[in-house]
From TrEMBL:
Belongs to the glycerate kinase type-1 family. This is Glycerate kinase. GO terms for molecular function: kinase activity. Keywords: Kinase, Transferase. InterPro entries: Glyc_kinase_flavodox-like_fold, Glycerate_kinase, Glycerate_kinase_RE-like, Glycerate_kinase_sf. Pfam families: Gly_kinase. It comes from the Bacteria. The lineage of its organism: Bacteria, Bacillati, Bacillota, Bacilli, Bacillales. NCBIfam families: glycerate kinase (TIGR00045).
Amino acid sequence: MRILVAPDSYKGCRTASQVAALMKKGIESGYPEAIVETVPLADGGEGTLDTLVDATGGKVMEVEVTGPNMARVASKYGVLGDQQTAVIEVAQAAGLTLVPQSARNPLQATTLGVGELLIAALDEGYRQFIIGLGGSATNDGGLGMLQALGGVFADENGQQVLSIALSLASIRSVDLTGVDPRIKESQITVACDVDNPLCGPRGASAVFGPQKGASLEQVEVLDASLHAYASLIEHHTGRSAQSIPGAGAAGGLGFAFLMLGAELVPGAKIMAEASGLERKLRVADWVITGEGRSDSQTMYGKLPVYVAQQAKELGVKAILISGGLGQGYEDLYAYFVSCHSIVSGPMSLESAMEHAEVLLMRTSENVARLIQAASGNRREAECL
């Protein structure tokens, strides 16, 4: 019996690699004869870099860049096992976790460090990029990134504006002719799992701004400023992208990458292709996936359902093991043989996270015992 373990991370609790290792240990305890292979995955947000590097046998390059609050921070980018593709995770340079809760203010945050990561990778000769959007503290529409790459955004006095969202409203002219020419030589694929446009009720500011510390008044300012800023860029380039699904991802970084000629692709698809998921599914009998919490939202592009869809096409049975199951999880039975929460009884979130290792292994062991029993019953039926 071959079982493939392909989970997402349990965000804020365990990385995808840690989850996969714990599931494997539990499965092997419950079904020692099973052949278990792991392929940790991610959705393009936090953990994307490490997951891809681990899955492909790549390496990590350490770089110091400008963080979201303009202070210098230790950062990194990854290089896949092909030695040709660089992976940049936005959260490594502009992540919400890099800003203390009390200091979060998207009006003052910048994506300058994202551009600096790109420059560092370009300097090392890389021209193929996977960009993981997600987890950003920013709402500057990629202003900082574009400035780091050589774009000029001037105010009414012809002075280059500061690389923060607060400056968007004061921009009067745009010039992207100075953007590093190596960008045009590059293939940039952006992992994006949201379909939000740049502006409006479903835009970057309205939907994600409050999560980053923006008040309702600031959301209105940010939305209007992003629209004016983006309109100037569109006029300058002759291309429109504000309404493209995903333009509003990561505080408008999706829009900026579109202006650089990047392709926005569902994060789950990128991760699956880069890690060889289909090839590994073809030799599996079962696949076990999971995430921190599964509910009705999991149906809409989340990684576990993508894994289950791929498995179904190949005739592989799928099981879901998540940190918790929320409202509407029953809809997931359309994709999974069974859905499990690792929580074994009444407990707080803090307690569940503290004991996640034991809970994960025990749940995986129980699921493996059921798979073993089902396999034995099937063999007995075939012999009759």
